[in-house]
Write a structure and sequence with these properties.
The protein is an alpha/beta fold. The protein contains twelve helices and 20 strands. It binds flavin-N7 protonated-adenine dinucleotide (FAE).
Length: about 550
Amino acid sequence: MKVMASTPTPQPSPETTKRKIHRRSLLGAAAALSSIGLTRSASAMIPRQGPTEHVNHLVIGTGYGGSVAAYRLAQAGHRVLMLEMGKRWNKPSADGQVFTKMVKPDWRSMWYRDRLAMPLDRFLGLKVVNPSIGKGPGVLDRRNLGYMDVFLGRGVGGGSLVNGAMAPRPRPSVIQRELPMVDVQAFFNTYLPRAEQRLRVNSIRPEFYAKSRWYQYARTGERTAQSVGYRTVNVPGTYDFRYMEREAKGEVPRSALDGQVILGNDHGKLDLTKTYLKYAEATKRVEIRTSHHATQIKALPNGRYDVTVELKDFHWNTLKTVVIRTNHLYLGAGSIGSTELLMRSAALDGLKRLSHEVGKHWGPNGNTMFARANHIWHPTGMRQSTIPVRGVDLWDTDTPCFAEITPMPTGIETWCSMYLAVTDSPERGQFAYNLAKNQLSLDWNQARSEKAVQIAKAAFDRINRKQATIYRTDLFEGGAKFSRNFSYHPLGGAALGRATDAFGQVLGHPHLYVTDGALIPGVVGVNPFLTITALAERLMDQVLSQA
Ligand code: FAE
């Protein structure tokens, strides 16, 4: 589609004058930065030219927050430009697959890594030998932030490309506690149902679940949890469960039933390219540019924003740097991406009035992963669907957590019940941006992860005691029973009502909005994308009501 409500590069004299001033101030900033020892790569981020184009609405990132923003704007008649650092995953490679299978990873599997880097470090006690894959713009990023690693989706659709598609509703009490400025009634009566409908959330058919060999692992997980009186719940999701039933019958190509999930899913997953982004592009008012990495925001005196964007090649070399001027800027780069962009821009003096709250209230959604070894009479199945559909819900107990019963699709019987727990850990981290190193850092450490582990352990010790079972010690580094150093659910960094106003507008910077997981201060009590989507819907209602 050809762009935009874009004005061409401004030519008339007032604009030229502004550009000169702009350039002069940038040169001044560059001199100042070099005097404080900025590295070459950081100083290279400073835009040296005026804007190459001007758009009314610019969205950075194509995950949940960004997709909602783009769709709602386009639906209301506005033209929107979206920038995505990853690629568009819509063409099969020579093997006929868009995404790789777990057993045959290549550059498509991971974001610029020589080797696969999976959450499980070992299996049956043996160190997992992560195969060499060749660096490329693959779909799953494992981003290191010191002690903590976060897993992220890269490409058009963001996290929806790699996630487990679980879409549970949060608890009203958690929304009230973490996001007190949100009207809980409106959130539950309007925004969550709207998000569910637009994301096409559906549920597995009870009869299929009860009998399917693909969910034996989940039934075993439920049965052992129920043996101590724990409540287990169905978890709706954005995998097309009717398609899954056809996979089981062998009528259609398999995806969830063929081990695909975390490295992308070829069929059946209702990722954002099949929902919000599809609706957005169908309006013909949205253009998505891939391999476009936004690196810096500069607030202009007239209330507009200049965004520096690098166009990348396959090897992440910069082909071109452009500056896009916009009247309205929506950050949907995720908890880490949006926070990083704000903090880097502030460090480079582009956002002078940014609140000191930016970079605070970050958490891994209390994530910890662990597994129990069942008895031989409690098998979990050789064949396992990759899409979890059951959770152990202990939120309102003395061990507050929500643990999804996670598959372990190894193709062999492991008798292993695996869980990813979202715990109510009060620990929060804080980011810092180091200009000299051009690096975002996070003050997380092992001690910060302990509270999550304590909660999950206390809860699942009870099952072990009752069942006379033990935790697996053959999955994580050093024989650890619980993971501590990674998260699938990074949240916070630009918390709603703290770094932003009650609707996501960044304090001190009108018309600059955070639309994504950065808004949620560290924990939401369940898997987060449904809540992120609903919050973005709420934010866009507010934006459009003022337009
Ligand atoms: P996100 O979806 O991460 O989108 C950000 C987008 O911005 C990405 O496409 C980035 O490539 C792009 N981007 C970042 N920085 C830039 C930049 N500077 N310039 C241009 N583009 C940029 O953000 N959640 C659930 O609710 N249920 C699940 O079952 C579930 N399973 C998960 C399993 C895995 C393995 C992982 C990694 C995550 C899982 N999640 C799950 C988490 C969920 O996917 C995540 O919370 C959301 O995707 C976050 O949505 P955002 O809109 O915040």
